[in-house]
Write the structure tokens for this entry.
Amino acid sequence: MLISIRLILLLFITRINQIIRVIFAIALNQISYYPKSVKTFESDFKKETNSLNSLMFSNATSAMEAALFACNVNDKSKVGSTAFVIPSSYAPACCLGAKIKFIDIDQDTLNLDISNLEKLDCSIDVLIVTHFYGNPCDMELIMNWAKEKHVYVIEDCSHAHGASFKGKKLGSWGHVGIFSLQGAKAIAAGEGAVAITNDSELMIKMAAYGHQESYKKFSISTEKEIKLPSFGYGKKMRVHPLGAVLAKEELKRIDKKNSIFLALHQELVKLSQINSNFKIPKVIKNGQIGGFCQGVPLIIKNEDMAKKIKKALIKNRISCFTRDYTLPLIEFSDTFNNSKDIKDSLPNSYSNFSKVIFVPFYQFVSPIRWKRLKSILKNYEDV
């Protein structure tokens, strides 16, 4: 009950402030280009992540495309990515002509299985690391591997606003960090994204790729002069300023939101410890989960039980869903022809397409729904 009240109050305060700020922005005609709302959010986000540069984009897919371009990805490149992740995370690599090398996940964390990096049967130029549902990957091990192999690392932090590893914010470990600000994320602009990096050369290239000639006004200083087209690369990927207004209010309260989500998360962790038929993804040592993609993945013991629990949740009006990426993997890969190929090459990813149930947190402004969720999970044999 207390958690639900905290969530209701947080959402109410945030929405009221957003309404007021948006009205002012419209009244002042700050509805296009790069008004104060955009630059202020970028500055605040840069401080939040202790990064040298930050830049907003229209969405995370566009930001990822710009980041891959800045990392010199082209039709001769190979880009590594986990398979159990929304295709828009890696699809931009295909837009640049690159091939995708899919890597299996760890069963306990649903994140990249780091042991598979050493087993890669080909070299890759860029590795996209997704912190799945805000659960941190071991970025120290990944960056050590990347440095040795001369691989760029792009962190997809779309689920992970406010999360950290060893006290360092996610997104600031890799060469570039990408944060979606889509409406289902913990910091939401409706649609939008923000990219961070300590490499100014990468940032100026990203700016030129997605912000046309405006990149010249962004005061991104580099040690050496970089030759770029006068009008950039012609693409317009800038965020809507009203989205930046919304996101700024969310950013102010991300720590409070994460504390509420963490309380919900911990209740489910405790429940899973006395119930062997489902588990919550393990958080690695020195990892601080955050963002949560405003929800939690439930790893159910087997496919049959997952179907029953999902049916029971929906019957009790609890929003939930599963994700089967079999078709996208076949469509975006040049090595998978059918589901058997995926199952043989990526057994952990494939098995979780049918075993993982995603449950959004926003619905638990109703304590009754929260109670129902826990009851169903606790009494799984009766579903």
